[in-house]
Fold this protein.
Amino acid sequence: MPADRILEVCDLRLAFRNWAGTTEVLHGIDLAIAKGERVALVGESGSGKSVTSRIVLGTMQDVPGVQVAGKVRFDGTDLAEMTFKERRRLRGREISMIFQDPTMALNPVFRIGALFHEVQKRRDPTIRRDAACARAAEILREVAIEDAERVLDSYAFQLSGGMNQRVMIGMALINRPRLLLADEPGTALDVTVQSQTLELMRHMVAQYGTSLLFVSHNLGTVREFADRIYVMYRGNIVERGPTAAIFNNPRHPYTRALLAAIPRLTGGGIPEIAERSEAFLEPMFIHPEVTE
Amino acid sequence: MPPPETAFTGNDRPVVTILSRLLRRLVSTLLVLFGVSLLIFLIARVIPGDPARIALGPRASEEQVEAMRETLHLNEPIIVQYAFFLGDLLRADLGISLYSNRPVMTDIAEYLPATLELVFLAGFLMVSLGLPLGALSARYRDRWPDDLIRLLTLLSVSAPSFVWAVGMVLAFSFAIPLFPIAGRISETIDIQVVTGFLLVDTIVAGRPDAFVSALHHVILPAFALSLSGIGQAARLTRTNMIATYEQPHVEMARAYGFSERDISRRYAFKPSLIPSLTVIGLDFAALLGNAFLVEVIFAWPGISRYGVGVILQKDLNAIVGTVLIISATFLIANIVVDLLVSVINPRIRLSEHGK
């Protein structure tokens, strides 16, 4: 099945180097996403899930003091063997990203239409503003924005968070990327708006056949969203497998703790979880893949 | 698709909001100018010394002085005197200068353009060099271009402009005679004065040689005047840009593969410009004050040099006139900056009661 893989990460290590020495924060991540597959990376803050997505995006490699080892293959090509320019060429064309807070992620002094224009220039450098806006209006209607023209003529601060999230989704998909990275999408939004926009995102991704790497700490949304789940703890993958298997039969102590941490609507107070536990450091558990 | 009909109507005509903003600012500016005129008038009247006596000199007789006091309305209550002053002011009559024996208005009309020419060019240098240097510094943060720019800008802000002026005259007029030492234009060139801005007048007269000569004369004083402003603008822009680089929207721009060049020139630059511009506006106005020493050093026939001359002569009419004109220029510069900021910042432009 390797030929079908859009993304393949092997033994990925990441270290930050500063005057005090080197601190390793990722200790050998293995991860793969098949074409059209939706994969979730879950874990607490600081577990390394966001930096993993930034390495896939190729921006982490350019930060001073960052050392990356291991292989990240996008569609068969190792990112480490690409030049800075080639990696940048992928971004916005083949790989795209949705951020945590859509309103903060949209430039405050450019109109939405201008941003859409710039994004489409990544695929077609000669595209005219009106053509880009017409195309943008189309995709905005796909993400259930009725008055697309008004939105394109607005600045991000004039729109609601939910509206901006739809804009973000449209912007991320307008160039038909093959891989979409979503880093805690909509965590800054309230729960109802978040679920509406996630539903839209799921629908669009399925329709376009885009592969998805979904980074989240919210197991509730992940369950609805992902085909497979990787659970991350302190720079390691501790458990991986199909979504159903992880939820129905969590094997690693950390995954169990994470699942137990979801507060129930039926009450019972905030669940108590150990801050640290030796058991969390147990080796990875791999659920057998379900082959159809 | 037409926009859906709604029951709400909003102000979506930015031009109108800018105009109403401008009007509001003009009204408040007039109020400030009125206050300045009252203040400077009172100060001119309470300082020791009889203006009529100062005007006529120590040899004049008591009768002559008394007659002069009558013409100058000095025997009236101070409120009435102020009313006379205000009336004259509205007719653009600022009285006669003792220093030059000409109407103060004539003096100002002669000297102000020279200063404005110097200050505008200095302001232009401040914006066109300071902002890009700051952006460059932020883009190459903690690398050699940044270190170099930070060192140079620190140097430029740590000495006042007259030190730079003296240094530049010594270096580029005496040691290496690249630039003329004094004046606004070569003495052999005779040019019809229309606007008083020689750079404009020479173009109007169709004299490229004269234009080059005027530019050659103004460049060194303008650079000396603007140097600390350039440094300040660059340092401020660097700080703002670095703060902007931390924003999620810059990460988004990188995630979508926008080039670092575009980010530095547009996506991060434009939002960073808003706080920079406000301070640059204040700096620009401060150039008027700093212009004095530079004008003295370069023998530049401007209003700042004139202002100091009249202060030393205790020439009350001319002092009042100069202060009023400089205040008005300061206030106008502030309005212009305010408008520029609202053009760049959509939050201000689009808010009806933007402040």
